[in-house]
Design a protein that fits this description.
Strand order of the largest sheet: 4-3-2-5-6-9-7
Structural class: alpha/beta
Helix content: 40-55%
CATH architecture of the largest domain: 3-Layer(aba) Sandwich
Radius of gyration: 22 Å
CATH class of the largest domain: Alpha Beta
Number of helices: 13
Distance between the termini: 70 Å
Bound molecules: S-adenosylmethionine
Length: about 290
């Protein structure tokens, strides 16, 4: 079979018919049928012959096949047993390992090691199932596998949240988490028409380039502050932090003093603070906690 055929809708329809495959909406199954977008994803990953790639949700193998031509090894995790059966036919390259299971639950480091990964450069490249996007991105960013680059197709709104700047509607916990671990970049917007079947939403490809965290403060406390700040969107920052500062034994006057010292207006809302400002605030609160 010509691999390129997998981007042709009529060929995909044929494979689906041959295997009597039924799309499972709960698994977010929308297959990419556009060679141009496929190339843009693979090009953005800047693959080399020594790279390992982890792919989540290979589907019928369209992206998997293209990736396999450009890197040392592709390890792809697919939850749907019906698809892993189809993949036995559609994947013919010998540098692809298919693992059946739930990508959210599995230990990625162990899976990669079993496929011969010995700390070579590793990249995550995937057309993600949208119902799990944020959880999978957080697992990739916070987990043990040191992804150098992540290139993922996500829902357009999620791409906007990842790349959002302070003061915008899309800015929130996901923006801050992504920007703490990586430099995000929009690769391209993607029409819903390039999928089979077409989903109800438009998509975008984003590239996250791993970086050293730009904020020098304990990440656990930083994200405690960030989560609290965005916990109640309509309240101002000082009020949203009340439970946290109380549990850290920091007196309200001390919190006021910290806000004043950092130049944060008393009525400021969390969504106006940059990652750097959240870092400064967290550092000051940790300091305040230690001195109470
Ligand atoms: N990569 C293929 C493509 O581009 O055509 C398919 C992408 S489709 C949007 C998402 C894929 O993720 C489906 O194959 C689906 O079965 C799979 N999937 C859904 N949930 C998953 C999970 N928890 N773990 C692994 N794969 C999952």
């Amino acid at each position: 079979m010509n691999f390129k055929d997998l981007t042709v809708p009529s060929r995909v329809a044929e494979i689906i018919k041959e295997h009597e495959f039924r799309f499972k909406k709960k698994f977010g199954q929308n297959f990419l049928v556009d060679k141009n977008i496929l190339d843009k994803i693979c090009d953005a990953a800047d693959l080399t012959e020594s790279d390992f790639v982890l792919e989540i949700g290979p589907g019928i193998g369209t992206l998997t096949n293209e990736l396999s031509k450009r890197c040392k090894k592709v390890v792809a995790i697919e939850i749907d047993r019906d698809l892993t059966q189809i993949l036995k036919e559609t994947i013919t390259a010998d540098n692809v390992d298919i693992v059946e299971g739930d990508a959210l639950q599995l230990d990625w480091q162990e899976i990669l090691r079993k496929s011969g990964w010995q700390k070579e450069t590793v990249k995550l490249v995937a057309n993600l199932p949208y119902y799990l996007t944020s959880a999978l991105i957080m697992k990739a960013l916070e987990g043990e596998v040191p992804f150098q680059t992540i290139v993922v197709m996500v829902q357009k709104e999620v791409a906007e949240r990842m790349t959002a700047q302070p003061g915008t509607k899309a800015y929130g916990i996901l923006s801050l988490a992504v920007q703490y671990y990586s430099q995000p970049q929009l690769v391209t917007n993607v029409s819903r028409r390039v999928f089979f079947p077409a989903p109800d939403v438009d998509s975008a490809v984003v590239k996250l380039q791993s970086i050293e965290p730009p904020v020098d403060v304990a990440s656990e406390e930083l994200f405690m502050v960030i989560r609290a700040a965005f916990g109640q969107r309509r309240k101002n920052l000082k009020n949203t932090l009340k439970n946290l500062t109380t549990s850290w034994n920091i007196a309200p006057e001390k919190v006021d003093e910290i806000f004043h010292q950092l130049g944060i207006p008393v009525n400021a809302r969390g969504e106006t603070l940059s990652l750097q400002k959240f870092g400064e605030l967290t550092r000051a609160l940790i300091h305040g906690r230690n001195f109470c």
